[in-house]
Amino acid sequence: MRVISGEFRSRFLKPVPGDKTRPTTDKVKESIFNMIGPYFESGSFLDLFAGSGNVGIEAVSRGMHHATLVDKQYAAIKTIKENVAVTKKQDNFSIIKSDANLALNKLSQEGRTFDIIFLDPPYKNQKMVDHANIIKNLSLLNSNGILICETDNSVHLEDNISGYKLINQKNYGLTVVTIYKFLG
After folding, report:
1. Is the dihedral of CA 174, 154, 31, 8 positive or negative?
2. Could you tell me if 167 and 143 are in contact, meaning their C-beta atoms sit under 8 angstroms apart?
3. Where are the domains of the chain?
4. Contacts of 91 (CB under 8 A, 6+ apart)
5. CATH code that applies to domain 26-182
6. Does the pTM exceed 0.90?
7. 3-class state of residue 144 by DSSP
8. Is the pLDDT of residue 124 over 80?
9. pLDDT tens readout for residues 108-123
């Protein structure tokens, strides 16, 4: 696993040890950024199920000013910290050890908002529409913000979720990436 492009290009990142996380592959990660960017001049990024921190680190490498990386597993948080250290830009990252719903509430209470939110929960626990609604209700996405959902190919997401408009969807075999624009 590596950073594909931008400031941290070609730096290798560690995967989370064990089998409790499923990292976003380099192929899928590159495709996601080609669909939404591929480069940015600023902005804030939230990865709600960060695993190794791989996608958020890629976002900052490509020009996002800040990435917030959330995961509830100790091993994931340890790996995220090690991977963020590889960037030598730790101030561009916030790392939160928390359950996703608790983290969303905390971020809302702090008045935080994001330009892009990435959802890639464990495939057996995917509640994308529920999370999209919580994000909308807590006003966590900036106007015209982007919500990216990475799902198992057995999950069917609606074209338009209340408050969001589908802008792109790609199937990568076992993985499907669905991108929505926030209409708020």
Report:
1. negative
2. no
3. 26-182
4. none
5. 3.40.50.150
6. yes
7. strand
8. no
9. 999 999 999 999 987 6
